[in-house]
Amino acid sequence: MNKELIVYFTEDGFSIDYETTGNKNYYADDKFFEDFKNNQNKTLFYFGFASRPRDISPSLSFIHKLSFRFIEYISQNPAIEFTKKPSMIEDFDAYSLMKEMPFAIGMEYISINWIKTQWTKLSEVFESELAKFGGTVQDFLKSINNQTKIFGRVFFHLVESKSDDYPFAFLATYSTEKAEMKSNHIPLKNALLEFQNQRDLLLKLLSSVSQAADKSDFLSDLIESGEIFSPLKFGKEDAFEFLKEVPLYEESGILCRIPDWWRKKSNMLRVSVAIGEQPPSAVGLDAILSFRPEIYFRDESFTKEEIEDLISKTNGLYFIKGKWIEVDQEKLKAALEAFERANELADGDGLSFADAMRMQLNPNKLLFQDEDSDLDIEIKSGEWMENLKKSLSAPEVNKNLKIGSDFKADLRHYQQSGFSWLTMMNNLKFGALLADDMGLGKTVQIIAFLEYIRQRRDFKALLIIPASLIGNWEKELMKFAPLIKYNILHGNKTELDFENADLFITTYGMALKLEKLRENKWDILILDEAQAIKNPSTKQTKAVKEIKADFKIAMTGTPIENKLSDLWSIFDFLNKGLLGTNKEFSTLIKNMSENENYSNLKNIISPFILRRLKTDKSIISDLPDKIEIFDYAGLSKKQVVLYNKLVKEIEHSIYSAEGIQRKGIVLASIVKFKQICNHPDQFNGQAKFAEEYSGKFEKLAEICETIREKRESVLIFTQFREMVEPLVDYLEKIFGRRGLSLHGGTAVKKRTEIVEKFQGDEYVPYMVLSLKAGGVGLNLVKANHVIHFDRWWNPAIENQATDRVFRIGQAKNVMVHKMITTGTIEEKIDKMINDKQKLAGEIIAKSEENWITELSNDDLMKLFKLEVV
After folding, report:
1. What is the pTM of this model?
2. Cα 290 from Cα 278, distance rounded (Å)
3. d(C-alpha 706, C-alpha 654), whole Å
4. What are the tens digits of pLDDT across the range 539-564?
5. Cα 755 to the chain's mean position, in Å?
6. What are φ and ψ of residue 349, in 5° steps?
7. Which of 37, 68, 455, 858 is the most exposed place for a label (fewest CB within 10 A)?
8. Nearest 5°: CA angle at 540, between 537 and 541?
9. C-beta neighbour count of 843 within 10 angstroms
């Protein structure tokens, strides 16, 4: 495999790292990477002067664009020669840059404030580097890249006037320095006086004008006549000639201040199509929407007859309906053709909701023959559709949507809005992607929705999940909605008993095998960890997509970021046809990458995605600083065999032993049970540690894949030193890089080096620690996840370990994952501890696991016996 440089965006900045790829042409510059590690802001500044590398990743391309725009701002601001300080980017320009943000890891953090923060960092580098250089800004910029386009101090101004004969006025000015170090514009004729004895300075000032005159007869005539130094009145013909040549002047380094309507002339003439003014008679993607095309010049609507009249005129500027417009016969004909095509669509069978959304991706395909046309076609939402998209994209808390007392949870405000959003999506028959951050409670929102439906009508729902999540879902259902009747379709249990179950839970593997799932039509179909269907070509994905349902939900904590092909597959499941065919979408991705504009795609998919982040201030204020998650894992077949065999061995020996001998048997058995629950190879003393033989290993992979996608770090604690290296080896495959480890055998000096490396600037995704060696005395706040792979059953010791992360200096919410194998001693003791907090606080803290030996033989065997549904 080859590697490419990828940018990972964070709340306050970004990091750059390598990622393996199958494309050997991707950009991978080791020196550039090292420079970024050593001085990110300085390297970013100089990156903007370089030509964009070939085959650059979309995320790195955005960073290049950010720096390039900053350099552009400097070079286009003559006042900076006097102020030596760049101005802050305007909100409008920052927003325009945001619209070009690609799908990338951490894209949700990009905001106007984020861009302004990076702008400030670039400004600080510029000021520092300029001070070291010691010369002019122009010389400094040219010393970095001689091809940098520098704008001079001359400005051309064209403004509208009220004269009928000469409706425009022209003035050439130049910038000079005021006492307060700000740029001041004065007429160009003043330069003749200011530099009358300094010919070299005058020629330097006018060099950009001379360069432009070499390419423009119009400007050359103004110079020869001397009119360039005086205020001028322009007729519409001269103004039109001037405006057409503005790009030529600016290419020569002359800044032109002209009417906004000409700057935005790409939007001057447009075909605007308003879709969905009124509510449709039906719901869903197939609902037929109202469809109204119009032709606009600037913000004024024109009829077909008025456009035909304009086509009869010659090209030029015309003052019509109180506004200046440009008549371009070719564009007018193209607009009329698109308008007539739109009317044909409106008069025909209408446009479905899916077509209307998809049209925003490529309006030319439906309204124009020429895919390369530069005609502006605006697809805008009518009143009903706009209100709908707003309510879907940013759902409010619906306090009127009540769940009865049979639901045993108090939803947080964002969970209540998520539950009501799912209900709304169900009513509208739109597929929904619930993509909340890990730890925000996607499962409880789904259960709330199902319980709400159960209280109102009969339903049959199918939930497809990874096998390792069966235990989690069972626990959550029993805890929050005990009246929902569910059935597990796994292993040998394959009967669809619709009389005795509302919800059927199965795995992705079983969904491939069970043909009867495709023979029924379900009311609700839910996919947890929906990234399992991101590859559209696999048999598993195809099998899942063949299952029919009225309402579909996909759940994932890592929505699509760098791989847009994944996005198509999930939306092909949720809302088939919304993003076109796979081939059409691939072409679209290619065009978006070339144009670096992903805003249309984001606008289309955003109503169908609900994504909330732990870093969102409206969320974080309602969350504890430390979020505890119990992650349940099932046992593999091999684990079940070993576990049951050990139970029988203990049962035979424990009833015949007494005193210290009995206590020793119990404590030794607890250790063996824990080893089996971790991995059979730990119990057997083998070294392979294959993932498929351990439910915990599979569960660990799911948790860490999310952590990897979010570019976060995790500590994994185990009480067994012999498990440290197997976990390090296993996690290296998950994260694509090797992490760190620390145990009782680690030398004191080495411990310090390990901590410094983990806390350093380089991204270290994980560290595996033995609980006793790493549970105290370390500050590892770079991580914001803690996983207790096996439990000590002493809350005090576990909290000490968690506090390596959850301490002063931690800027993020800490996610604490406690892994428990279902039906085993791990689950039963965890329940005992939670049921008896006094026991946990007073007895366990003092005696650790010795309290278990005080149980009766019968109670011990109940504790040890495996109870797996």
Report:
1. 0.79
2. 7
3. 43
4. 999 999 999 999 999 998 877 655 77
5. 30
6. -80, 0
7. 858
8. 55
9. 14
